[in-house]
Amino acid sequence: MNKIIIFTILFIGIQANIFAHPHIFIKTELTVCFDNEGINKFKVKYNFDKMFSADLKQNFDANKNNIFEASEIETIRTKAFSNLVNYNYFIHLKIDGKKTKNGKISNFKAVITKTGVYYTFSISNKIPINKTKKNLKIATYDHSYFISVNYKKESIKFENTGNYVFTHKIIEDKSQAYYYKQIYPECVILSVKQK
Questions:
Q1: What pLDDT is attached to residue 23?
Q2: Structural domain total, the chain
Q3: What DSSP letter does each residue of 56-71 carry, written as one string?
Q4: What is the pLDDT of residue 153?
C-alpha cells in the first residue's frame, strides 16, 4: 500500500481496522522526571522505522534541506501528532492499579537524523510520592495494532531522583492484552517511595 495513504490513515485520524498487522514501527524511550513532590512529568521519544521516517521527510520537509524547521514542526504537530490524543499517545499509565489519564502534552519536536526521524514530547503528570510505596505501570502500545510500539532496549531513564528510592523492570504485561487479547504490551513496572 502506498505509504502516503498509510500516513494519512494513521496520523490524520481515519480508522484502519481493516489492517491486521503493524505497518509502522516505533521504538519508545521514556524518562521519568521527579521534583520535590514526586513525579512531575514523563519525557517520551518515538524513534520511527526507516520507511515511515522517509514518508515524514517527504511530506513535511517542505524545502528539502533535511531539517525540520519551526514552521514544519508545527505542521507536523497539527497534522501528524495531535490526533494521537485518541490513542493516549501510546502511553498507558496505571497508578496503584488504577488507570490514569495522561496530563498536558508539551515541548513537541520532530527531528531528522541519519538513522531516521524521531519525535520528542513531554507529558505533565503530577504524581505525589511520599514514604508509602507507590506502584506504577507505564505501558506503550497502539490498541488498534496498526503500529507496533515497543520500548527501546535499555531506554528507561530517570531524572532528579535524589529524594527517592525505586526499582523498575520491563515486562510483557498479560493483564493489558489487546488486539483480540493476542498481543501483550511492554510495560515499565516502577515501585517508588521517598527516602
A1: 87
A2: 1
A3: HHHHH-TT-SSS--HH
A4: 86
Low-confidence stretches of the chain (pLDDT < 70) are 1-20
- Residue 18: what pLDDT? 46
Q: Where are the alpha helices (DSSP H) in the chain?
A: 3-12, 50-60, 70-80
The confidence score (pLDDT) of residue 177 equals 94
Nearest to 153 by CA among 182, 188, 111, 121: 188
Q: What is the widest separation between alpha-carbon atoms in the chain?
A: 54
36-66 exposure pattern, b = at least 16 Cβ within 10 A, e = fewer: eebbbbbbbbbbbbeebbebbbebbbeeeee
3-state SS assignment for residue 16: coil
Q: 166: domain range?
A: 3-12+20-194
- Amino acid, res. 97: G
One-letter identity of residue 185: P
Determine the Cα–Cα distance for residues 91 and 103; give it in Å rounded to an integer.
Answer: 11
Domain CATH number, residue 95: 2.70.170
Q: How far apart are CA 191 and CA 32, in angstroms?
A: 12
